[in-house]
Amino acid sequence: MRPFTLNTGHPWKCGHTGERGMLQNIRENAQGMIAKTIIVVLILSLSIWGLDSIVGGSGENEIATVNGEPITEREFERAVQMRRQQRLQEMDNPDSSRIDMDALNEEVMDSLIRDELIGQDIRARGLEVSEADLDRMITGAEQFRVNGEFSQERFIQAVRNQGMTVDQFRNMLEQDHLSRVIQAVIQGSAFSAPSETERVASLLTQTRDFSVLQVPVGERAESMEVSEEELRSFYEDNQKRFVQSESVDAAWITLDRSELVAPSDIEEEAVRDRYRERVESMQADEQRNAAHILIREGREDAEAAVEAVQEGLDEGRPFAELAAEYSDDGATAEDGGKLGFSSRNDFDESFSEALFGIEETGEVVGPVSTSFGQHFIKLLDTRSEEPPAFESMEASLRETIARERAERRYVELSEELADMAYSEYDLEAPAELIDASIQTRDGVRPGQGQAPFDHEGLREQLFTEEVREEGFNTEVVETGDGVSVVARVREYYPREQESFEDVRDEVAQLVRQKKAREALRESLEGMAADMSADAGLPEPTIGNGAEWETFEGVNRRSLQARAVVRDAAFEMPAPQNGSASTRIVDLPSAVALVRLDAVNPPDSATVSMMTSNLGPSLGRRHGQMAYQAYIESLRADADINRN
User: Fold this and answer.
1) Locate the PpiC domain: which residues (predicted)?
2) What number of helices (H) and strands (E) belong to the chain?
3) Is residue 405 a contact partner of residue 261, using CB atoms and an 8 Å limit?
4) What is the rounded distance in angstroms from the CA atom of residue 160 to the CA atom of residue 341?
């Protein structure tokens, strides 16, 4: 192993002068943040998976090669597990059944290929991080510090614990650092020219005036004649539209926390014990009205003043008179030392103990020492909340105890149910465990369902291969607060093509609507051809009661018009040479003719404000596009094979 020493030297060694200059320009800004992030990720990855998760093992199955360099099955599996854990941590209510594993696997493979391509490009360019910079990155990592100072012993021990050498760790750190630096360089070098930013700002703040004629399809469709040949032809050309989706006949059991313990099941002794606790709590909240005489700590005649107050009390002088004469509490002395009603926790501990230890109203105790000095304390009055009768609290106490017991029982049963649902091949024993009836429902489909199959995670589990075809129960799925479900498939029905006879009426309706839309588009195209930009809106000649609707000053985010109509208006060229600018768009139940009436440029102040806000975001967008183009160029030139 190479000894770990701090080195000095040039920060970067690059194959080309231009690259060296570019990297040096961002070194000070990027190194600290990037280095800390990389070390945290590396240590976390290694602590969970070990060295093989990053560098791969020898003699393993290759699932892909990038320019001849392998990506192993172990690398892929470990990366998938890490990405899966990340997804679960991002969920408010983690549910592994909601993760699309096919999409996640593809995402991970794409990421591994990208990382290998970047690593090869780094080596091809001859980019390196100096020994001195690697030293600084390592010594600056909190993971290797003891009492704020870098510990070489902790660093080496941490690396050895992962079965690595220092060289291996430094090599991984170098490649990850360079990968992130390349990304930062490419993205940081992109910018938006002022002229481009101003042009985009002008387009974004532009408004348009346009008119819309909507013609309903329904009436025209009803009058359309269709032949048997047209129906069969449409059916043959669109068979994917007429497929019965897969479905299952399901059975399930429900564990409902609210049904586990009824208030009537709570024994009276437990309710009375809880009542006594409540009463004691109310009594502990007693408030007392007191007066006091304070002889402050440090007063020159403190001892004599204490004796004088004591003598006055013994002689029967009024407490208020003594307070006015001797008390150092200027806020209360003139008012007889009155403090008002207070709770036990409002005063110094020794003061409160003395006050709340007085048994009779009018009694005086003292002197009592506190951090302020010596006190004589008189109890003036007491008040406390009168505890309600047991009968008035019994029902609510029963409900509270029942909820608490139900929560504990729910947790216990959930754990037992999870184990049993996994080991059993039916719902009989799990149902007996939780004293639930087995319920059934036919025709549950992947896309939607009634409760409890309105829960996406439960539906997804029903259609997994092990549940759908191998007869396993689902996991315990919490479908609501305190409600858990275990389900299984009684019968599975795969996707199947619906026959023409079964869907003939639906086909006929679709064909009529299609022909009606085509006829309306043809009529509207003829109307548009006769329009001019300078003339008014022509009188509608089609559609029963259809009328033009005019919109003025509409911006790109306006909700005045339907989004499809608004977007069409902004895609159309401005009217030129007297020719109208028109477009025909399909709406859910109508066909619309849109005529662009005017393009309204924004005022200079609006453009200026938008330009100042838009420049940085356009630059970032260009940077992201540039980095993506860099990755795509590496892919285009690479020999990538997936096994």
Assistant:
1) 285-381
2) 21, 21
3) yes
4) 66
Give residue 141's identity as a one-letter amino acid code.
A
Q: Which of 627, 459, 557 is closest to 208 using CA atoms?
A: 557
How far, in Å, CA of 185 to CA of 150, rounded? 30
pLDDT at 502 over 90: yes
Which residues does 490 contact at the CB level (< 8 Å), separation at least 6? 248, 249, 250, 251, 440
What are residue 3's phi and psi, to 5 degrees? -60, 145
Instruction: Report the alpha-carbon distance of residue 474 to residue 444 in Å, rounded.
Output: 15
Between CA 474 and CA 427 the distance in angstroms is 10
Rounded Cα gap, residues 295 and 310, in angstroms? 12
> What kind and span of H or E run contains 318?
none
What is the pTM for the complete model shown?
A: 0.50
Residue whose C-alpha is closest to residue 235's, from 524, 510, 441, 526: 510
- For residue 283, the model assigns a pLDDT of 64
Dist. CA 347–CA 72, nearest whole Å: 70
3-state helix, strand, coil in the chain (%, to 5): 55, 20, 25
Dist. CA 97–CA 342, nearest whole Å: 56
Task: Answer yes or no: are the C-beta atoms of 185 and 526 closer than 8 Å.
Answer: no
Contact assessment for residue 444 and residue 248, using Cβ atoms and an 8 Å cutoff = yes
The answer to whether 41 touches 95, Cβ cutoff 8 Å, is no
Q: Could you identify the residue written with the tokens 């002022």?
A: 194
Query: What is the enclosing helix (H) or strand (E) of 494?
Result: none
Query: Domain 12-189 - what CATH class?
Result: mainly alpha
Residue-range domain boundaries for the chain: 12-189, 194-204+605-636, 207-241+503-600, 247-256+408-494, 286-383
Q: How far is CA 482 from the centre of its chain?
A: 22
The mean pLDDT of the chain is: 84
CA dihedral 28, 31, 34, 38 (to 10 degrees): -170
Residue in the structure block whose two tokens are 């897969």: 246
- Tokens found for residue 636: 């285009």
Give CA torsion, residues 255, 256, 257, 260, to 10 deg. Answer: -80
Alpha-carbon gap, residue 121 to 515, rounded angstroms:
57
Q: Is 639 left (phi over 0), alpha (psi -120 to 50) or beta?
A: beta
> Which tokens belong to 630?
């860099």
Residue 180 has a pLDDT of 87
pLDDT tens for each residue of 427-476 = 999 999 999 999 999 999 988 889 999 998 899 899 998 999 899 999 99
Quickly state the pLDDT bin for 139 (edges 50, 70, 90): confident
Number of alpha carbons in the 13 Å side-chain half-sphere of residue 367: 23
C-alpha 456/C-alpha 447 separation (Å) is: 8
Sheet holding 62-66, edge to edge: 69-72, 62-66, 640-642
Looking at the domain covering 286-383, what would its CATH class be?
Answer: alpha beta
Per-residue pLDDT, averaged over 536-560, amounts to: 88
Q: What percent of the chain has pLDDT over 70?
A: 88
